[in-house]
């Protein structure tokens, strides 16, 4: 299999394009997918069609290749996007709906939380809802409190939704293809600070199963559990500590729901010391869920109290300086590791 | 009944992983008594003599001088005269220790070895040689015996070929146990194989799995001290065990669904009452008023070195008070303005000592007692005393005079972390030209320190306190720090020590000088 150095953004687009080529029922639904020309497209007549492709250019070129029937620009109305996509999924299509910023899920939460997530259950198992909801998460771009959140913890609390948060380009492509082929609604969270990060990605389509953690570092003294962009910060801290002789294992669960409990617990059993890094929330977040899992299932293995590294319980600040202070970083992770090691 | 016992590489200190045999002090064939010095073993930290753990006859030396072996590896075999050489050969072959086991061998080729020959042993069963490197099921303290080690049935043995879906830890365990994962059924998502699946398969195929070892470890053999809250037990058994001080790990589980029940706890209590633990110090059977804590190697090393210093070096001490208001102001300013830098007062003291040593190089020395010569160093390598639960160690900030305060601070922090995790390498704590010992954080006003040989002087630093001082005839409040310099009079005279303190005062009281 040939590999290419590819950005997270290109890996996501490749997954979308390859799945659309493979399966004619895969359609894209969202705002500005083809470049800010919702409703009419004068470029169609002029033959000049290469448009921007969404605010971050992820879907650039898809409309050119697949046309208006399969790349559908919508008005600015999240409830319509997800409502339409959920209905399309019920009728047999495999829609990929883009919310742009996951922060906007509140507008369409009923369609997601009380409709799409419940269809299979409410229709006695006779309905499938092969829906993917894509969107950006994460702070770090000075996008302020309404465009910087990471609500994967909210989605993960809903039975019936699968929640994916890839930390690198390879995972992004494999997990997105898996999401599209999955017969249940999947919320696919793309961290906005990762779009330009490159990694080795196979050119051909491939899938990564849900609920399988990736160990980005293997070690024996401390387990760091981190998700999405926090994996990179954890790797940085792990590499620095490795130079000092502290051997750190970094576990990236990759999917919040389903969660690879074995992958987490086996690592904790082997190290006995845990640091959990989570950008989602200072309370009731992904990190707290994992901490509860470890406390209930691996208490006997722990040599030190579990340490959590999360932002404070505040909205994300706009000021770049405050935002950097708000975000967990490698230095805070390192300090937490030192704390559990010396406990 | 004939009895064969093993002498194994001991675990001296938390970080010890292997030892090198330097000399045998008892010859093959000679008899020895418990407590006799058997051989000399050198570790990365220390050279020490191994005391015989029991009486016996040294029938076979397995580890030749110069060999480096992991903790728990077989050093020698002891047996009564009645035991024939052939029996010893057979025994060694059975436990796979006829050659000194390297970790690779230990994990790599258990195929032909039968289960450890437990029945021939009385008080000192061999460590589970075949599988002692199993990460999840075996403690690193190999001298600690577990009831039963992991024994893999032959049917499962082999090498994993090709793509098998397994967790990273399952994969590692299979490697360590030489299990072919193709023969293990995965019950995880997508059929993934977990560590628990491997254990289940071993049990189903007739093998045994060593019980899990919880992290809290104890040097006393026989009794468990780990957390037993996850051991299945009936509520009554759990309550009874707690009241009798019995750990549930030490109980058999004969109750329904594999639970420890009341009779198991009673049985364990009887067992402990009848058989005092092997190797434990003889002490009153019940409710001792004191606890016997064995002298650790680290304590011995501390005792030996400081006793030597106190005996050989004629100490004299010089005490002075330093005013640190300016230093505290500078520290506050730096910490408030430079992100990611958190200087401690001690970082300043280390830096000031290094700077003062540059001015008074005759204090920046080591005294070589063997050749009766003074080694004067150009760079100031400052040892910093770090307290550990098990003792104390003095990691070194090399070339401290050439480093900035921030660099010194970062380095001290990193050395302290390593010291606390037992990861210091020898060159990080051996040597040095001067030591700083600071008890300020404990609110000690002033104390004397013993010189850290082969160095010539040590500075004992107390707590910074607001004290009344007289300035121009007025009593005013100033933050004062009392330091005491202990010097070795063989190599440093009073005036020289005083000159050092004068320079130290200059840097501490005008801290800006440290920045230029």
UniProtKB/TrEMBL annotation, chain A:
Q: Where is the Transketolase-like pyrimidine-binding domain?
A: 6-197
Sorted UniProt keywords: Oxidoreductase, Pyruvate
Key word Oxidoreductase present: yes
- List, alphabetically, the CDD domains matched: TPP_PYR_E1-PDHc-beta_like
Q: Per its UniProt record, what SUPFAM superfamilies does this chain match?
A: Thiamin diphosphate-binding fold (THDP-binding), TK C-terminal domain-like
What Pfam families does its record include?
Transket_pyr, Transketolase_C
Q: InterPro entries per the record?
A: THDP-binding (IPR029061), Transketo_C/PFOR_II (IPR009014), Transketolase-like_Pyr-bd (IPR005475), Transketolase_C (IPR033248)
Task: Write down what this protein is called.
Answer: Pyruvate dehydrogenase E1 component beta subunit
Species the sequence originates in: Rhodococcus rhodochrous J3
UniProtKB/TrEMBL annotation, chain B:
Q: Which organism is it from?
A: Rhodococcus rhodochrous J3
Please give the residue ranges the record annotates as the region Disordered: 100-161, 209-230
Source superkingdom: Bacteria
TM segment ranges: none
| Protein name per its UniProtKB record | Dihydrolipoamide acetyltransferase component of pyruvate dehydrogenase complex
Q: Where is the Peripheral subunit-binding (PSBD) domain?
A: 165-202, 232-269
Q: Which PANTHER family match?
A: DIHYDROLIPOAMIDE ACETYL/SUCCINYL-TRANSFERASE-RELATED, DIHYDROLIPOYLLYSINE-RESIDUE ACETYLTRANSFERASE COMPONENT OF PYRUVATE DEHYDROGENASE COMPLEX, MITOCHONDRIAL-RELATED
Tell me the ranges covered by the Lipoyl-binding domain, including all copies: 4-79
């Amino acid at each position: 299999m040939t590999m290419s150095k590819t950005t997270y953004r290109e890996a996501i687009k490749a997954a979308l394009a390859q799945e659309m080529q493979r399966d004619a029922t895969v359609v894209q639904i969202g705002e500005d997918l083809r470049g800010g020309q919702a409703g009419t497209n004068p470029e169609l007549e002029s033959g000049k069609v290469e448009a921007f492709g969404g605010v971050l250019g992820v879907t650039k070129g898809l409309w050119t290749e697949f046309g208006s029937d399969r790349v559908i620009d919508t008005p600015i109305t999240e409830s319509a996007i997800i409502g339409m996509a959920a209905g399309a999924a019920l009728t047999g299509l495999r829609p990929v709906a883009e919310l742009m910023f996951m922060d906007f899920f509140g507008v369409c939460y009923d369609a997601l939380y009380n409709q799409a997530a419940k269809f299979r259950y409410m229709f006695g198992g006779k309905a499938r809802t092969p829906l993917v909801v894509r969107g950006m998460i994460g702070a770090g771009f000075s996008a302020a409190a309404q465009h910087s959140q990471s609500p994967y913890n909210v989605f993960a609390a809903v039975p019936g939704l699968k929640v994916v948060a890839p930390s690198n380009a390879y995972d992004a492509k494999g997990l997105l293809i898996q999401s599209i082929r999955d017969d249940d609604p999947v919320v696919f969270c793309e961290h906005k600070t990762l779009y330009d990060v490159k990694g080795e990605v196979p050119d051909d389509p491939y899938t990564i199963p849900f609920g399988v953690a990736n160990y980005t570092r293997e070690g024996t003294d401390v387990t760091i559990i981190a998700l999405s962009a926090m994996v990179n910060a954890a790797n940085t801290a792990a590499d620095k500590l490795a130079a000092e002789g502290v051997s750190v294992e970094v576990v990236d669960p990759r999917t919040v729901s389903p969660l690879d409990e074995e992958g987490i617990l086996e690592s904790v059993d082997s190290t006995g010391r845990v640091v959990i890094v989570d950008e989602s929330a200072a309370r009731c977040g992904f990190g707290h869920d994992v901490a509860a899992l470890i406390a209930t299932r691996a208490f006997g293995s722990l040599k030190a109290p579990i340490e959590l590294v999360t932002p404070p319980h505040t909205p994300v600040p706009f000021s770049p300086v405050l935002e950097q202070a708000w975000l967990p970083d490698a230095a805070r992770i390192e300090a937490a590791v030192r704390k559990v090691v010396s406990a | 009944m004939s009895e064969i016992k093993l002498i194994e590489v001991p675990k001296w200190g938390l970080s010890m992983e292997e030892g090198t045999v330097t000399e045998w002090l008892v010859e093959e064939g000679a008899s020895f008594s418990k407590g006799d010095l058997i051989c000399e073993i050198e570790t990365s930290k220390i050279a020490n003599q191994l005391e015989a753990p029991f009486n016996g006859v040294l029938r076979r030396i397995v580890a030749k001088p110069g060999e480096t072996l992991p903790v728990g590896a077989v050093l020698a075999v002891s047996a009564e005269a009645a035991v024939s050489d052939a029996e010893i050969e057979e025994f060694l072959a059975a436990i796979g220790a006829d050659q000194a086991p390297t970790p690779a061998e230990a994990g790599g080729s258990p195929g032909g070895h039968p289960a450890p020959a437990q029945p021939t042993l009385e008080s000192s069963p061999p460590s589970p040689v075949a599988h002692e490197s199993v990460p999840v099921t075996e403690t690193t303290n190999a001298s600690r015996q577990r009831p039963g080690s992991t024994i893999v049935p032959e049917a499962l043995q082999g090498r994993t070929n090709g793509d098998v879906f397994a967790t990273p830890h399952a994969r590692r365990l299979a490697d360590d146990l030489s299990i072919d994962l193709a023969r293990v059924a995965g019950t995880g998502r997508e059929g993934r194989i977990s560590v628990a699946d491997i254990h289940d398969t071993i049990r189903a195929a007739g093998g045994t799995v060593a019980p899990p070892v919880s992290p809290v470890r104890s040097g006393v053999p026989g009794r468990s001290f780990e957390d037993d809250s996850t051991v299945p037990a009936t509520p009554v058994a759990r309550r009874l065990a707690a009241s009798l001080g019995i750990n549930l790990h030490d109980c058999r589980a004969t109750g329904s669904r594999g639970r420890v029940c009341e009779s198991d706890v009673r049985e364990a209590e009887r067992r402990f009452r009848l058989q005092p633990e092997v190797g434990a110090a003889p002490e009153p059977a019940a409710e001792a008023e004191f606890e016997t804590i064995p002298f650790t190697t680290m304590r011995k090393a501390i005792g030996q070195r400081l006793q030597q210093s106190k005996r050989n070096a004629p100490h004299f001490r010089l005490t002075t008070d330093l005013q640190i208001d300016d230093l505290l102001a500078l520290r506050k300013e730096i910490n408030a303005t430079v992100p990611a830098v958190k200087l401690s007062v001690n970082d300043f003291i280390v830096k000031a000592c290094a700077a003062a040593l540059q001015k008074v190089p005759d204090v920046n020395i080591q005294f070589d007692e063997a050749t009766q010569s003074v080694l004067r160093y150009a760079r100031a390598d400052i040892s910093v005393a770090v307290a550990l639960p098990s003792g104390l160690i003095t990691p070194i900030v090399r070339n401290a005079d050439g480093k900035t305060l921030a660099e010194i601070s970062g380095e001290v922090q990193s050395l302290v972390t390593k010291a606390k995790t037992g990861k210091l390498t020898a060159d990080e704590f051996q040597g040095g030209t001067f030591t700083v010992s600071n008890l300020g954080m404990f609110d000690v006003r002033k104390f004397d320190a013993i010189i850290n040989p082969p160095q010539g002087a040590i500075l004992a630093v107390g707590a910074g306190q607001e004290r009344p001082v007289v300035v121009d005839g007025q009593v005013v409040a100033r933050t004062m720090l009392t330091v005491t310099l202990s010097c070795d009079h063989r190599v440093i005279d009073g005036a020289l020590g005083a000159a050092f303190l004068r320079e130290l005062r200059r840097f501490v009281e005008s801290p800006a000088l440290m920045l230029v």
